[in-house]
Design a protein that fits this description.
The complex is a heterodimer. Chain A is 87% helix and 6% strand. By secondary structure, chain A is mainly alpha-helical. In chain A, strand 1 (40-42) and strand 2 (45-46) form a beta hairpin. Chain B is 78% helix and 0% strand. Chain B has helices at residues 10-31, 37-42, 49-60, 63-76, 79-88, 90-105, 111-115, 120-154, 158-205, 211-222, 236-249, 254-257, 266-298, 300-306, 313-362, 369-393, 400-423, 429-448, 451-457, 471-488, 492-507. In chain B, helix 1 (10-31) runs parallel beside helix 15, helix 8 runs antiparallel to helix 17 and helix 13 packs across helix 14 (300-306). The N and C termini of chain B lie far apart (65 Å). The mean pLDDT of chain B is 89. Classes of the chains: A mainly alpha, B mainly alpha. Chains A and B meet through helix 1, helix 2, strand 2 and helix 3 of A and helix 5, helix 6, helix 10, helix 11 and helix 13 of B.
Chain lengths: 83, 512
């Protein structure tokens, strides 16, 4: 039980920190380097818009990683403990 | 520019009536299934992951956010994206830290989790202060928004609009409880996503389904600045502070947290957050398209003649690309959205008043099923009347900052105590209590001293506190208070109970 609690804690904290780094990285870029984000990487698409969309995408990816971990490792360990 | 907006017409009123009849129909059906406190507060814990995902997304996609962010994008381009991203990134945090422990440890409110291994009475009282503050500020923002929007959309007077929203909402929360609140939210979420998708497709059809062509057209009409960060984020500290409050506040909103009790188990809770995040992210991407669509197709000047804040951008766009029928549909969906969000807030406020304060503080946990239901319904009536009164009292006032305030209190008062009670064995009753009270009080105090109130509302030339959002100060403060007070006076008994709680946190109630 303690090993499982520690594992869950580690995964949750690691993913939370990853999300915070991505999001606050984006916010700080917006705050400190506006010209960079205004640069157009394609006609009609600025770097800022691309990165903003990537933040949303990274939220989905991080959740997908967590759900996969929880559905396979965590749930299996819980089932084992119930028996 | 001429528009049918704000003039009562048959199609708009028809859609409006369809929604009212539909939600009352759901209420009649739900009322037959609402016989126990479990059914009233948590829909009998029978909601599926997809349903709960839609309901969570619905709670989060309020009319103010749909119309407001589309308007912000239409008027300032890129800056609207900053808000959208901030509102979305709280959801992974909810999933990683909160959803499953909440489902396994609590019954009806998030306070159940904090109080689980601590002393009931002081925790319930302190948590109720934070919860009710969040619910009240959120309700004020929603009711004032409702009055204004319905006046703009349908031409109904402000007071009448507030009373219609309060009255219809009361009917379905009172009789249908969480079952009706959930289903109205699901229906509305589907309609809102469908309406926004149709609108976005109609816009993109004019640009050969290439969003970049739309953005490029906007840039050629209004300059490349619309694609770059503008004035919204000028002070980095303020931006980080707002970002922190949006991110962690989501994980402390009582009406969102309450939805995790409507699902049968932790795994379903987890999956439902995944669905909710997918829907909300998709919705914000659509809103971005709609904002740029309105900027190009309707034009900024025309949008600001109807509402200086840009709130009418999406309805005007609907009329521009789909005529009066689509305008009527989008307006009615916005109305349904207001109704559903207000209902969710009222139900969570009622749960705090009746479950936390009446049953667990006044009656010390000894109340039978009948009494719990009677008190829950009484609390619903009190909150509905209160929300109508608040809506009328704050008429004509700038209440936009109140949603930010609600998020800041949720992040500073509710989130730290909730997370520490789940993850930190040495948290004590006094620590959690102090953290929640200091979190609420410091947030309210710093908002009152901030430029928002001092300069924008009171018209003073300077403010005592530099940040518009206090999260950067109050969230760490609340954590420090909780940890400091707990370490100063350790309570070994409460620490021992943590291990029992941890077992239940992982295994759930049934097999604990």
């Amino acid at each position: 039980m303690e090993a499982l609690a520690a594992a869950r804690w580690r995964v949750a904290i690691a993913l939370t920190i990853a999300m915070m780094v991505v999001y606050f990285g984006f916010i700080l870029l917006v705050a400190f380097d506006k010209p960079l984000l205004g640069m157009q990487v394609a006609d009609g698409l600025s770097l800022g818009m691309l990165l903003g969309a990537l933040v949303i995408l990274s939220a989905w990816v991080l959740m997908w990683i967590y759900v996969r971990w929880a559905n396979t490792h965590y749930d299996a360990a819980i089932r084992g403990m119930r028996r | 520019m001429s528009s049918a907006l704000g003039e009562p017409n048959a199609i708009t009123i028809g859609w409006f009536l369809v929604f009212i009849v539909l939600s009352l129909g759901i209420t009649v059906w739900a009322s037959r299934k609402t016989r126990t406190a479990d059914q009233f507060y948590s829909a009998g814990r029978s909601v599926t992951a997809l349903q709960n995902g839609l309901a969570l997304a619905g709670d989060y996609m309020s009319a103010a956010r749909f119309l407001g962010i589309a308007g912000l994008v239409a008027l300032s381009g890129f800056d609207g994206l900053i808000y959208s991203v901030g509102f979305l990134v709280g959801w992974p945090i909810v999933m990683f830290l909160i959803a499953e422990p909440l489902r396994n440890l609590g019954r009806y409110t998030f306070t159940d989790v904090v109080a689980f291994r601590l002393r009931q009475v002081p925790i319930r009282i302190a948590a109720s202060v934070g919860s009710l503050a969040v619910v009240s500020f959120y309700l004020i923002a929603q009711m004032v928004g409702a009055g204004n929007l319905i006046r703009l959309l349908f031409g109904i007077p402000y007071e009448a609009a507030v009373m219609i929203v309060g009255g219809v909402m009361l009917a379905y929360v009172l009789f249908g409880g969480m079952i009706a609140t959930t289903w109205v939210q699901i229906v509305k979420a589907v309609l809102l996503l469908a309406g926004a998708s149709i609108l976005a497709l109609l816009v993109l059809a004019r640009f050969s389904f290439n969003p970049l062509a739309l953005f490029a057209e906007a840039a050629s009409m209004y300059g490349a600045n619309v694609l770059a960060p503008g004035r919204l984020v000028s002070d980095p500290l303020d931006a980080v502070s707002l970002g922190l409050a949006l991110m962690l506040g989501t994980a402390g909103l009582p009406h969102i947290l309450m939805r995790f009790y409507t699902v049968p188990d932790a795994r379903t809770a987890r999956t439902s957050v995944g669905y909710a995040t997918a829907f909300i992210g998709f919705f914000y991407l659509l809103t971005f398209i709609l904002g740029f669509g309105a900027m190009v197709i309707i034009g900024r000047e025309a949008i600001t003649t109807f509402d200086a804040g840009g709130n009418m951008a999406a309805p005007l766009l609907a009329e521009g690309v789909g005529g009066t029928p689509l305008l009527g549909f989008i307006a009615a969906v916005a109305f349904a959205t207001i109704l559903a969000v207000v209902a969710g807030l009222t139900l969570s406020g009622a749960a705090t008043l009746s479950h936390d304060l009446w049953v667990n503080v006044i009656r010390r946990g000894h109340a039978d099923e009948r009494e719990q239901l009677v008190v829950a319904r009484g609390a619903t009536i009190v909150l509905a009347v209160l929300s109508i009164l608040l809506g009328i009292t704050f008429k004509g006032q700038n209440v936009a900052y109140m949603v930010g305030l609600a998020f800041a209190i949720a992040a500073s008062a509710n989130f730290p105590a909730l997370v520490l009670s789940i993850f930190w064995s040495r948290l004590t009753t006094a620590g959690a209590q102090a953290s929640m009270l200091v979190g609420t009080a410091s947030t309210v105090a710093l908002i009152v001293l901030s430029p928002t109130i001092q300069m924008d509302i009171l018209g003073n030339s300077a403010a005592w506190f530099p940040l518009r959002n206090p999260g950067l100060v109050t969230i760490p403060l609340s954590f420090i208070v909780a940890v400091g007070v707990s370490l100063l006076q350790p309570v070994p008994l409460e620490e021992q109970k943590f291990h029992a709680a941890e077992r239940r946190l992982h295994l759930g109630v049934e097999s604990g």
